[in-house]
């Protein structure tokens, strides 16, 4: 529900007059400007009233969804806290002026219902793209650049012992989400082009975008897409507290690196709101395995949340395909084989299968060789013909660099016997001296 949506039975009320059992349907600001995960909820504990008092002066109550008067507790009076100084980001107000982009989908789902098999993932149809790659590219560039700048800024601040502004981060993720909902190809391509070698800020960005993209494929509710994006953005935040000096002085680097999960949880629990609490649990648990052999707590099965399960998958995928020093990353095919081999003992089978289907055989950004000998990069998926994507030709048949030309392999002229044109294999750009 958008904060400007009017509910017939809504009543404006001061936060100081809130009572247990009331259903909050609207805030005095956009939902995206708040730290609350879901758009509309029943007040079932006093802590929620305290959180509302920190962020709002008044809210709107839907009396038809509130608990009956007999179940209401007495009025809980909360003094609105003094306004804190603005965070180091100093651009929260810029995001606060933005209006939420409305993207209508006929039906959305909850991740927990998919993981619990209350909804069969294979029956879910991903939403249609609203924009082509070309139409979405500029918006995706802006959203990607803003989110990337944000990640670099909060990482610098965390390294120096400072806090994270969850609400500002939520805005950056929201922009990425709306771009991915319109058309995921542009954002996915930007991720691949910038991920030549491993660094923590780009890895965080990659995991955030991949999680949102998988959530889009499963038609998850917007609230969950934003939450998944934040969890991806913050999952490795604890590594920032592992200094080079500490790493160099330890005799057990593996054990020390494993402490990043608890460090990440501690950092995020100092932030306000439900978003930070969920992200903190994911940061703490994203190396747990379903059979209980992971770390740090040896959790297993239902002890591992649906959000953690999804982030674990996309985190491992990005680690597998990314170059790390002299070690080359795997191709998409080999990475997917590795992921599928870890399900269901380590990773959630339903989500791994869904991720495999979501990414397809030739993900955006893949370097491919054609039957003609030419080398190209996949720039846009054709939803109805996934083996015939839109590609950008990079070399001639003799592997000489050529003027970059975009070709849609689904076009009729490339599918006839005389002009047959198809992808033969995924290859590495380095094999042919291609610099992206």
Task: Report the helical percentage.
Answer: 40-55%
How would you classify the helix and strand content by structural class? alpha+beta
Strand content: 5-15%
Tally of DSSP β-strands: 9
How many structural domains? 3
Largest sheet report: 5 strands, antiparallel
Number of helices: 15
* CATH H-tier superfamily of the largest domain: Hypothetical protein af1432
Order of helices and strands: EEEHEHHHHHHHHHHHHHHEEEEE
Question: What best-fitting shape do the alpha-carbon axes yield?
Answer: globular
Using only C-alpha atoms, the radius of gyration works out to: 23 Å
Mean pLDDT: 85
Which CATH class of the largest domain? Mainly Alpha
Low-confidence stretches: 1-8, 69-102
Please give the alpha-carbon distance between the first and last residues: 41 Å
At the fold tier of CATH, the topology name of the largest domain is Hypothetical protein af1432
Q: How does CATH name the architecture of the largest domain?
A: Orthogonal Bundle
């Amino acid at each position: 529900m958008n904060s400007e949506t009017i509910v017939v039975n809504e009543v404006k009320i001061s936060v100081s007059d809130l009572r247990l059992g009331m259903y909050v349907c609207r805030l005095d600001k956009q939902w995206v400007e708040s730290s609350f995960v879901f758009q509309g909820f029943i007040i079932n504990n006093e802590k929620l009233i305290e959180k509302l008092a920190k962020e709002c002066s008044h809210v709107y109550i839907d009396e038809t969804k509130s608990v009956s008067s007999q179940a209401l507790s007495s009025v809980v009076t909360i003094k609105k806290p003094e306004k804190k100084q603005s965070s180091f980001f100093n651009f929260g107000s810029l995001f606060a002026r933005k209006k939420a982009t409305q993207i209508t989908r006929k039906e959305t789902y909850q991740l927990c219902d998919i993981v619990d098999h209350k909804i069969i993932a294979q029956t879910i149809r991903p939403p249609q793209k609203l924009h082509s790659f070309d139409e979405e590219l500029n918006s995706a560039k802006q959203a990607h650049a803003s989110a990337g700048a944000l990640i670099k800024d909060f990482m610098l601040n965390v390294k120096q012992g400072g806090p994270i502004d969850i609400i500002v981060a939520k805005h950056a993720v929201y922009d990425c989400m709306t771009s991915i909902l319109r058309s995921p190809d542009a954002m996915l391509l930007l991720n691949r082009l910038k991920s030549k070698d491993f660094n923590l800020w780009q890895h965080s960005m990659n995991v955030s975008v991949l999680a949102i993209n998988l959530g889009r494929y499963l038609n998850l509710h917007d609230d969950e897409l934003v939450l998944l994006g934040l969890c991806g953005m913050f999952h490795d935040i604890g590594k920032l507290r592992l200094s080079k000096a500490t790493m160099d002085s330890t005799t057990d680097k593996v054990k020390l690196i494993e402490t990043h999960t608890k460090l990440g949880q501690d950092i995020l629990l100092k932030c306000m709101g439900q978003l930070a609490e969920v992200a903190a649990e994911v940061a703490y648990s994203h190396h747990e395995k379903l059979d209980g052999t992971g770390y740090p707590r040896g959790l297993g099965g239902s002890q591992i949340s649906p959000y953690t399960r999804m982030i674990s998958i996309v985190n491992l995928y990005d680690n597998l395909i990314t170059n790390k020093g002299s070690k080359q990353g795997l191709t998409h095919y080999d990475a997917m084989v590795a992921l599928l081999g870890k399900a269901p003992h380590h990773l959630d089978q339903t989500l791994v299968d869904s991720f495999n289907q979501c990414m397809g055989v030739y993900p955006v950004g893949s370097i491919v060789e054609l039957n003609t000998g030419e080398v190209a990069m996949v720039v846009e998926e054709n939803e109805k013909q996934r083996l015939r994507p839109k590609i950008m030709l990079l070399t001639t048949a003799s592997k000489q660099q050529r003027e970059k030309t975009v070709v849609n392999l689904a076009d009729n002229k490339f599918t006839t016997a005389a002009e047959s044109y198809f992808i033969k294999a995924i290859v590495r750009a380095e094999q042919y001296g291609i610099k992206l």
